[in-house]
Amino acid sequence: MSWAMRRTAFWFLYIFGYNTSIAVWVGIIALAGLDAETGVVMLLYLDIACEEWKKKGQMRNVADLKDAIYHGAVKRIRPKIMTVATIILGLLPIMWSHGAGSDVMKRIAAPMIGGVVTSAIMELAVYPAIYLLWKGRKLTGDEASLPDGAFPTTGLSRLIHS
After folding, report:
1. pLDDT number for residue 47
2. pLDDT digits (tens, 9 = 90+) for 117-134
3. 119 near 35, Cβ under 8 Å?
4. Is residue 149 within 8 Å of residue 40, measured between CB atoms?
5. Quick one: CA torsion of 46, 52, 53, 56, rounded to 10 degrees?
């Protein structure tokens, strides 16, 4: 679970005035599990997209890597947004409840609602960018032995080679 999701989860707890308790930690652990699962699936989609582009012979430079990452990440937008919407819509009634046991359930739901929004942003925007840096370094490292002009210089490759 990333620092941003923990931060958002704890800000949500602060806004609602909840102290840390066993119920809060259950919500944070559930959020961490959800984020780990969906994050691994995103990395799997990015890996599959890059492998498909390599098999087709389309992985020649960093621009091709960006295209492959884009096509892999786009396939995860709808499932991630549906997951986030389902979690939020399922947990919001808990936040408004007033019956027996609602005080404990609110403390489980609050970090999940706060963290799942950040999870979506991280997974759809930040993870592909980090993946680009990670795979771009390997791609430019493999092709660094090419003569000058054979590998188009991009901002990423200049950053890596400097």
Report:
1. 92
2. 888 888 888 899 999 998
3. yes
4. no
5. 180
Q: What is the pLDDT of residue 88?
A: 92
Tokens coding 64: 């091709």
Give which of 10, 64, 12, 5 is closest to 32, Cα–Cα.
5
Short-list 9, 15, 13, 12, CA closest to 31: 9
In whole angstroms, what is the distance from residue 155 CA to residue 54 CA? 22
The answer to whether residue 143 scores a pLDDT higher than 80 is no
Q: Yes or no: say if 132 and 155 are a contact pair by the CB < 8 Å rule.
A: no
Taking the complete model, does pTM exceed 0.90, yes or no?
no
Pick the CATH number of 3-15+24-143+150-161 from 3.40.50.2020, 3.40.50.720, 1.20.1640.10, 3.40.1190.10: 1.20.1640.10
* pLDDT, tens digit, 9 for 90 and up, residues 41-51: 999 999 999 99
* Of the ranges 43-52, 106-115, 142-151, the best mean pLDDT one: 43-52
